[in-house]
Amino acid sequence: MAFKDIREYIDFLRKNRKIIEINDEISTDLEIAYISRQATYRNFPPLLFTKVKGYPGWKVLTNVFYSIDAFYDLLGTSKLEEISKNFIEQFMGDMPISLSQKIKSLTEFTKFGKILPKSKKPVFEEESRANLLTFPALKTWPKDAGRYFTFSIVITKDPETNVNNLSVYRIQIVNDREAIIHWQVLKRGNIAAQKYKRLGVRKIPVAIVNGVDPVIAFIASSPVPPGLDKYLFAGIIRGEGVEVHELDNGILVPSNAESVIEGYVDLDDVRLEGPFGDHLGYYTPQDYFPTFKLEKVHLRENPIFHATSVGKPPLEDAWIGKAVERLFLPFLQMIVPELVDMNLPEYGLYTGIGIFSIKKMYPGQGKRAMMALWGTGQLSLLKFIIVVDEDVNVHDINQVMYAIASTVDPKRDVLIVDNVITDSLDHTVPNPPLGSKIGIDATRKFKEETGREWPEEVKDDEQVVIRMRPLLEKILRSHDLPVK
Ligand SMILES: Cc1cc2nc3c(=O)[nH]c(=O)nc-3n(C[C@H](O)[C@H](O)[C@H](O)COP(=O)(O)O)c2cc1C
User: Fold this and answer.
1) What are the strands of the beta sheet with 252-254, ordered from one edge?
2) Which CATH number applies to 336-450: 3.40.1670.10, 1.10.3380.30, 3.40.50.2300, 3.90.550.10?
3) Could you read off the pLDDT of 12-63 as tens digits, one per residue?
4) Would residue 29 show up in a list of annotated catalytic residues for this protein?
5) Ligand 1 near 169 CB (within 6 A)
6) Which residue is catalytic, options 278, 317, 413, 426?
7) What's the rounded Cα separation, in Å, for the pair 101 and 104?
8) Domain 82-306: which CATH class?
C-alpha cells in the first residue's frame, strides 16, 4: 500500500497513535530543531507542530524517519531487502547485461505500467503573495548562516536523457526570491548543471518541492543507481507510480505536494553558503554554491512543511542510511556479486564507515571488493571500508573487531588511497572534495597473500560437545542463565 500524500501518512500515524501533535506556540528559530533532535535521540514518533510562531496556517512535520520502524510502516514490511529482491526477480530476471542496460530495457515492458509516473491534476494552486520568507524554514543550530529548507526536494531534469532527478539538498534562504542550493559535486543536481553548462544553458529549470509521501522524500535522499529516474524508482519501491504534474518550466512535480517553488538555478550567480551544523556534528565551513531564483509559488491550503535537523548521530539521516543499506544491498550484489551483507553503522556517519562481508574465493579478492565498492555510486564517499569473510556478522561490531585483530597485518592488508573524491562536508578532508581513504582487508588470507598456509582455527571435539551438553545445561539452569 502506498500513501497518496503526506496527509494520508499523518492520518495513518494518528490512527496508530504514532504521532505527537504539539499545539504550544514554537519558533522556527532553533526551537523546533532542538525539540525534534531530542525526539529522534529518544526514537519518539514524528512530531507535528501546529502553532508555528509567525507562520499562521502552516504546520511543521519533523522526525518522520525517527527509527528503522518508520520505514517498516512506510514500506509495509520489515523485510526491506525483499522489496528490491522481488523487483529484481520480477523485472530483471538474470539477463547477463549491465544494471543500466537492464534498467533501460525495463521501460519496454508493459507490466511496468503500474509503477510508472502518472499524470494527475495538482492539489496545489499558485499563490501570488508567497515568497521564500513566507515558508517556515528552520534555523537548526546557533551559528547556522540563516534559515534553511532541510527536507525539501530539488527537482531537475537531465538535459541529455530527460531523466527526472529528485534530490534532498539543504537550501539556504537568502531573501524573498533567492536561495543557495548545496549540491555536492558528484550529486545529480550538479551533474545535470554541468550538462546544461556544456549545452550553453546558464539558467537551469528547477522546482523545490516539500511535503510529499515520505517514501518519495526518502528516495530523493537515496543513492539510486545513476541514470535511473527517481520517479520510476519511487514507483518501484512504493509498488505504485507517483502522480505527477508538469510545471510551466517543464519540471515534473508530485501532484499531491504541499508546496512547490518554481524557478531556476543561475549558474552565473555562485555565492558563499554556510556555515551549517551538519551530520558530522560540526559546522561545515563556507563554500561556493549556485543560487536559486524564485519565479512562482504553489501551495495547498493550510500547508504542511516537512523539515529535519541533522547533528551528532544518530539522527534521522542515520535511519535513512540503515534503510538505504537494506534496500540497496540486492542492487549492490548485482555489481559486486561476492557481497554477502553490509553495515553502515549509525555512529559511522553513514558515509564515514562501511563494513562489508564477502564470499572469498581467490587471493586479493578483499581488496578487489573494496575498490569495486569505492567505485559504486555514493559508496565512493566512504572514508573507511572494512571487508570481512561471510561468516562474520557485519552488524556485530565485536565480531568485526575480532576479524580485524585476527586476520590483518596492517602493512599487507591496509590500503590507503590518496587524493580521491570524498565527503566534502568532512572537516578532516585536507583538500575538499579530495581526501584519502582507508580500506582494511580483514578476510582470512590465501597462501598467495601471506607466503604460507593460513593456520587452522580451534574447534571443539564434536563428541565432547554432545557428551557435555547435559552438564552444561545443568550448570546454566542452576545459575538462571539462558540455555543456548
Ligand atoms: C536531511 C538530509 C540533508 C541532505 N543534505 C544534502 C546537501 O546539502 N547536499 C548534498 O549534496 N546532499 C545532501 N544530502 C544527501 C543527498 O540527499 C543524497 O546524497 C541523495 O542520494 C542525493 O543524491 P542524488 O544527487 O544522486 O539524487 C542530504 C540528505 C538528507 C537526508
Assistant:
1) 118-119, 243-246, 252-254
2) 3.40.1670.10
3) 999 999 999 999 999 999 999 999 999 999 999 999 999 999 999 999 999 9
4) no
5) yes
6) 278
7) 5
8) mainly beta
